[in-house]
Amino acid sequence: MEVKAPNAKSPCTRSETPPTMDKLPAGWTVRSIADFCKVRTGPFGTLLKASEYSEQEGVPVISVGEIREGYFRITEETPLVPDAVQRRLPQYLLRTGDVVFGRKGAVERSALIRNEQSGWFLGSDGIAVRPDADECPEYIAAQFQSHQVRQWLALNSTGTTMASMNQGVLSRVAIPFPPTTVEQETISAALADAESLIDSLAQLLTKKRLITQGVMQKLLDGTRRLPGFNAAWSVYTIGDIADDVVNINRDAASLPVLTCSKHYGFVDSLGFFKNQVFSNDTSTYKVVKRGQIAYPANHIEEGSIGYQDLYDVALVSPIYVVFQPRSEVNGKFLHRLLKLPQFLPVFGRFTSSSVDRRGSLRWPAFSEIEVSMPRVEEQDAIVEVIEAMEDDIGALEDRLSKARALKQAMAQALLTGRIRLVEPQPA
C-alpha cells in the first residue's frame, strides 16, 4: 500500500511535531515527505512466503539487515527472489531514486537506490520512499542521513523493546529545501564528492590491511626472509622462552580491566572495558605489566589478549594465562606469532576439553606449545617492519576518521543553509 496525503497524520509516541530546521535562510522551505513522495511498505507474509526465496537466482531482497549507514550490504545470507516472484509482485521492485529504510530495529538507517541497484526487491521488513519525478533524490537521501532527521525517526518510532516504523511516521518527516533544484543538486554533488573521498580511503585501508596481514604471515612463519638474515630458525616450547607470571595484586581495584568476551571477540584495547566493574573483590586478579602477554583460559579461539606496550599495568580477571618473555625473545614478535591462524587449532589441542576449544587452558599446558623462531636480531628486524606497516595503517585510519568528521560537519552546514554553494537570489 502507498501513502501520499499532504495532510496525513499519524499518532506519535514521543514528539508531536515533525523535525524542522530553525533559522533557515530566506527562501528555504520545510516540506513533509507526504507532500512530494510515495511511501511503500514491503510485502507481508500473506503475499510473499519465505519458501519463495531463492539462494541461487534472482535479485536481492532488501530488508533491515541489508540497509546500512547510507549504503547496502549484500551478503551470502541475503535472500533472492526469482523472476516468477518479480513478475507477480512488480510493485515491490525498487528503482533508481528510491530511499529504503528498515521497519524494525535501526529505523533511522537508510540508503539510496542507484542505477546499478535498480530492480532489487523491497523486503517485508523494508519501507521505501519514492520522490516525485521533479525532485532530487540525492538531496532527499542526504537529508535522511542528517542527524536531526535520524534522531526524529528514532524518537518517533513505536515499540518498547525494538523500534518499529510505519508509513504514517515516515510520511510526517519534514525536511528543509533550498529555493532551487540547482542548489539541491549542488549540495548533493558536494556531499557525493566527500563520500567518494571516504570510499577511496576506506578501500585503500582495506587493501593495506590485507597486504600487511599477508606480509606479517610470511615474515612471522619464515616463508619470507628479510635481507641479511639467513640463519636457521629454532623450535622452542613457550616454557623454554617465557616464564609464568604468578603475582597477585590485592590493591588493584582502581586499575582498568582487560578481558576477552565471546560476545565481543578479541579485545586488544584497555579502553573498551575501562571503568567496568566485574567484581568488587579484586584480590585474585592478576596484573599484566608492560612487556607481558596474556591469554584467556577459556574461549581461547578469540585470540591473545594483547601485548601491553601502552600501559604499565592492566587489571586482568583471574581466568588468564599471563607470561613474561625472556630477554632473548622479542615479546612483540612472540605476541604476533601466536596470533597467526595456524595456532588456533593448536590451542584447542592443549585445552582440558575439546568442546569448541572452550576448555580450560592453563600455564602447564600452554608452556608445552611449540613455536619456530629466528634469532632475536631477526625478530627485532621483523617487528620493526611490521610496526612501520601498522603505523602507516594508523595514519590512514586517522585520515579516514577526519574525512568522515569533515563530511558530517559539511553536511550539517549545507543541509541547513548555513553555508551556501549557490549565490542566493535577491528577493
Report the span from N to C terminus.
Answer: 42 Å
The CATH architecture of the largest domain: Alpha-Beta Complex
Binned strand content = 15-25%
SS element count, helices = 11
Judged by helices, strands and strand pairing, the structural class is alpha+beta
Helix/strand order: EEHEEEHEEEEHHHEHEHEEEEEEEHHHEH
Give the low-pLDDT segments: 1-13, 262-277
**Share of helix, binned:** 25-40%
Please, how many domains? Answer: 3
CATH topology of the largest domain: Adenine-n6-DNA-methyltransferase TaqI, Chain A, domain 2
Question: Cα-atom Rg, whole angstroms?
Answer: 28 Å
Tally of extended strands?
19
Mean pLDDT: 83
Using brief descriptors, characterize the structure shown.
five-stranded antiparallel beta sheet; 11 helices; Adenine-n6-DNA-methyltransferase TaqI, Chain A, domain 2; 3 domains; Helix Hairpins; disordered N terminus; alpha+beta; 19 strands; four-stranded antiparallel beta sheet; 427 residues
